[in-house]
TrEMBL record:
It holds the Pfam family Response_reg. This is Response regulator. Residues 3-119 form the Response regulatory domain. It comes from the Bacteria. Keywords: Phosphoprotein, Two-component regulatory system. The lineage of its organism: Bacteria, Pseudomonadati, Myxococcota, Polyangia, Nannocystales.
Amino acid sequence: MPKILIVEDNELSRDMLSRRLRRRGYEVIVAVDSSEAIAIVTTDRPDVVLMDLSLPEMDGWATTRILKNTEATAGIPVIALTAHAGPGDREMALEAGCDDYDTKPIELTRLLAKIHRFVCSPEVAPSGDFRTN
C-alpha cells in the first residue's frame, strides 16, 4: 500500500484529504508544519509528499528545498498544493524542486492521477515530467 505524507496546517483540509485517500487504499501520515514534515520524510520515507505551500514558520517552498537538497530524501516526489494559484506560483514550485503542482480546492480525480503517476509508474513519471503539460 503506497504511503502518502500530507503536510497541511489546516485541520479540516488535512482530515478531509486524509479520509478520502485512505478510502482509496493509501496509507496516510500527516504533518502540521515543516519541522514535522522533514522529520517524517526522513524516518518514514513516504512514497509521495503532498506539500501545502502556505505553512507557518517555514513555508512549503523552503521545506521542499530542504528535502530535495538532502541526499536521503531527494528522490521522494513532492506535489505542491496551494490555494494561491496566481501567475508564477507554478514556476516557484518548480524552482523549489516540486515534482508536480495542484491547486485547492482539491479536485480529487486530478490529484489521484498525479499521485498514481509517482506510486505506480515512477519510471514513466520522472521528476519534472509535468512541466511540458
